[in-house]
């Protein structure tokens, strides 16, 4: 492998799944929102970066440590730790959040293309769900899959050598 390919591979491994997740978030409603916020506020809200970036990095590091120590992804660890009623409540809450986000997407689409937003939305998502499936699969893959060793080793250098203990079933 050439030096350029090795360098690109090292950069890609260092960025980890956060790059893919961040890129998957740039949907039409996000682009419209970002464009409107940028046009209205310009660089005046850049100071929020000082607050949000450390929290985003902390979440990535904690997620990497959890996956590194238990050798399971976040979804599996949550399923092993929570009792069934709490897990069902969490799934219900996530479905509710997804419905709220769909409503926000509909309103953003209405702002961009006008009154035909509902017809376009139903034709685009109701008739053919194949556009959503790849993005959902990427998100679920990164949620269930333990983090890459190159990313996790820097965040959590004290990985145990023995297999992770099995958690008792609730």
What can you see in these coordinates?
- The protein is mainly α and 170 residues long.
- The protein has a domain at 83-121.
- 74% of the residues lie in helices and 0% in strands.
- It has helices at residues 3-15, 17-24, 28-41, 48-70, 74-81, 84-113, 117-126, 132-144, 149-155.
- The protein is extended and about 55 Å long.
- The termini are far apart.
- The relative contact order is 0.14.
Features:
170 residues; mainly alpha; 74% helix
List the helices and strands and how they pair.
Layout: H1 3-15, H2 17-24, H3 28-41, H4 48-70, H5 74-81, H6 84-113, H7 117-126, H8 132-144, H9 149-155
Number of helical segments with 4 or more residues: 9
Average of pLDDT = 72
Q: Quaternary state, please?
A: single chain
Residue share in helix:
over 70%
Strand coverage percent: under 5%
Shape category: extended
Output the helix-strand order: HHHHHHHHH
């Amino acid at each position: 492998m050439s030096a350029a390919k090795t360098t690109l591979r090292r950069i890609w491994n260092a960025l980890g799944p956060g790059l893919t997740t961040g890129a998957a978030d740039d949907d039409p409603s996000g682009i419209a929102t970002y464009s409107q916020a940028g046009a209205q506020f310009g660089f005046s809200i850049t100071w929020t970066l000082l607050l949000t970036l450390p929290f985003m990095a902390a979440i990535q590091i904690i997620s990497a440590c959890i996956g590194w120590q238990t050798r399971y992804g976040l979804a599996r660890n949550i399923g092993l730790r929570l009792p069934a009623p709490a897990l069902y409540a969490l799934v219900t809450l996530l479905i509710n959040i997804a419905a709220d986000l769909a409503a926000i997407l509909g309103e953003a689409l209405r702002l961009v293309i006008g009154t035909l937003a509902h017809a376009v939305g139903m034709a685009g998502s109701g008739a053919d769900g194949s556009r959503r499936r790849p993005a959902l699969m990427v998100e679920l893959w990164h949620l269930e899959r333990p983090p890459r060793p190159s990313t996790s080793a820097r965040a959590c250098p004290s990985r145990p050598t023995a297999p992770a203990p099995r958690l008792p079933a609730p």
